[in-house]
Amino acid sequence: xxxxxxxxxxxxxxxxxxxxxxxxxxxxxxxxxxxxxxxxxxxxxxxxxxxxxxxxxxxxxxxxxxxxxxxxxxxxxxxxxxxxxxxxxxxxxxxxxxxxxxxxxxxxxxxxxxxxxxxxxxxxxxxxxxxxxxxxxxxxxxxxxxxxxxxxxxxxxxxxxxxxxxxxxxxxxxxxxxxxxxxxxxxxxxxxxxxxxxxxxxxxxxxxxxxxxxxxxxxxxxxxxxxxxxxxxxxxxxxxxxxxxxxxxxxxxxxxxxxxxxxxxxxxxxxxxxxxxxxxxxxxxxxxxxxxxxxxxxxxxxxxxxxxxxxxxxxxxxxxxxxxxxxxxxxxxxxxxxxxxxxxxxxxxxxxxxxxxxxxxxxxxxxxxxxxxxxxxxxxxxxxxxxxxxxxxxxxxxxxxxxxxxxxxxxxxxxxxxxxxxxxxxxxxxxxxxxxxxxxxxxxxxxxxxxxxxxxxxx
Length: 459
What we know:
Structural class: alpha/beta
Helix content: 25-40%
Strand content: 15-25%
Shape: elongated
Largest sheet: 9 strands, mixed
């Protein structure tokens, strides 16, 4: 083997100084050298533990492995020459000292069956922001096993943004964690280190040229550009609503009542394995609200919500049945002294072919909650209506959309929802968009014409 010297940038040098008994979150901006650093971490593991080294590198799709394959070929070729063998069909590297590195794909829970019962001592997940919730990745930790003389380790790499931004930031960044210092992560019960980087740390690229490429990639999305260039997880990352959603305009303090002259209705997005979201919405008739403020006639205020998500996971439901959910919805309506009626996702009214069972809407009606179809029609038109109302909030002569502080799920999710990268006018539906969908359905129940607002099918 004709080993060559490998030049590291400052970020990679710092990364390689972390002892192997710490898990690592590589959570910086784009172009910081994370991928190259991951290959170096693999190389060190291979050299130290030799035939006992068992490494699994994961991406959501096999296509996403291409760049990492090239980095591996470059670095392993420098160190081992042709002695390191890569089976492209199996996506497996085998090294002359007996070490093993597998490049794998993990998109759904069905994909997990490929790894069930297998053991690895180094698990790496790249582009973790593509996962809308951490469930699959947490499950993979069960494959981390080794003897006492080999530390197990998990490394997760992600850029700010993406559908997984919320859980990654909450778990690894905004938990009182200081970059490059160990912190205890409750879910894994492990010591982690948050290792951020940006393109300015990477001396191996033309930084000025790369910055221009980043700017040209998102000319109309300054929030995303800031996330990519600064590695800033605190940005208002909901690129989809970033230009129209602003707390000081759209957020209202909790009310204790709804004026009797204001029209009220429910907006519902059903879920079982995914969260169910039910919103209490009302329409201003121009009279003074309980908080003492004036909301222009036709303004919509979301005063409350019932969302059945698991604690710590915005995208996972509690599995509630319709009777249980209906009882909680009726309790919420009783609190506000309103009727348990409104609009729901059109899918709630579908009957399963070949079965005599009632639709979800029929079940709700039997349990005292009445829903009409939301007529959701075109998603993009619904989102544009929502955006327009958010943008109009705070204007004295235009109807706007306002959301109460009681709606914690809405406020936690709306700012982080992002565009669909393949259809930029639409929202990425893999994120925690359940309450946003309910809000869209609720607005579809309102007909805006010449400044007038009326509810359809609820009177």
